[in-house]
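@channel sequence for tomorrow's demo:
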Amino acid sequence: MNQKDDEMEPWQCSFCEEELNRHKIERSLIELVNRRLISYQMQDLICKQCKMVRNSIVSKYCECTGAFLQTSGNQNPEKLRNRNLVNHMTDIKLFMELVRSFATFHNLHVLRETTD
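structure tokens (generated this afternoon):
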């Protein structure tokens, strides 16, 4: 089956065999991606040494000269207790690659553009 065949073939629920709405599923995934990006961009950075939250936009280092660490979107799934790739701690690049490949495989064009 190629991608054009997949686009024509409806998605069906594995339990009740009802047709699933691809557009609703795509919109839900786009919302998930947008929420994930916003939470990644709005995360607090914490000092590696003193554990204080970064309070300045311009400083690269903490007042104690420690480096700042991300609080979300920076872990490989192997290092997480919950290995669900939708987990907020999963590396953001890995998450986007996963969603992008899903969108490409299923011809979800808007989702693909969103992840690009």
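heads up for whoever presents: The chain has a mean pLDDT of 78.
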